[in-house]
């Protein structure tokens, strides 16, 4: 890799972040996972074995799927060997694939979500829970994503009125709220 000492200094001190190609190169050089290097967290392993479907689904997928079914839709979970989508929904005459995520990091008014790629035509639904407040489900499909190869990161910030915005300032509307 060829980067300046000044660039490395900015990375180390949090002034800037490496570009996607540099994250990938650094991860290969250091023999570490790209998600861990980009966010400092170990990625959640995909479900394996014959125990597919809802038994292998994580909490965000189960909550979003449950809300769809409670409102009259039908959900079919992906097989254990399939990373994306988490499930397919049939709701009010529409059929769509869903990737459900919850925040991987939360600091102050900022939330970061790791989204498995490729997203394709899937809807990306986020489950956000406040410490002492309601749980909200957001459609973050159109939010600005930073792609890192096998995954992307969506960063949202909360304004003083409590609304969430993506990296380009677009407001992310709440789809469902559970008190």
From TrEMBL:
Stored PROSITE patterns: HTH_CROC1 (PS50943)
Residues in HTH cro/C1-type domain copies: 3-37
InterPro entries: Cro/C1-type_HTH
Name of protein: HTH cro/C1-type domain-containing protein
């Amino acid at each position: 890799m060829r980067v300046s000492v000044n660039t490395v200094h900015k990375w180390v001190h949090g002034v800037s972040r490496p570009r996607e190609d540099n994250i990938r190169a650094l991860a290969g050089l250091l023999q570490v996972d790209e998600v861990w290097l980009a966010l400092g967290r170990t990625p959640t392993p995909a479900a394996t074995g014959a125990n597919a479907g809802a038994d292998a689904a994580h909490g965000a997928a189960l909550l979003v799927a449950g809300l769809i079914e409670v409102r009259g839709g039908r959900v079919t979970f992906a097989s254990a060997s399939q990373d994306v989508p988490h499930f397919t929904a049939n709701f009010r005459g529409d059929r769509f694939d869903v990737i459900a995520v919850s925040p991987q990091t939360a600091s102050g008014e900022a939330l970061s979500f790791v989204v498995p790629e490729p997203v394709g035509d899937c809807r990306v639904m986020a489950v956000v829970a406040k410490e002492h407040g309601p749980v909200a489900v957001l459609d973050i499909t159109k939010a600005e994503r930073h792609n890192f190869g096998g995954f992307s990161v969506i960063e949202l910030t909360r304004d003083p009125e409590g609304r969430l915005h993506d990296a380009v300032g677009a407001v992310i509307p709440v789809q469902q709220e559970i008190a």
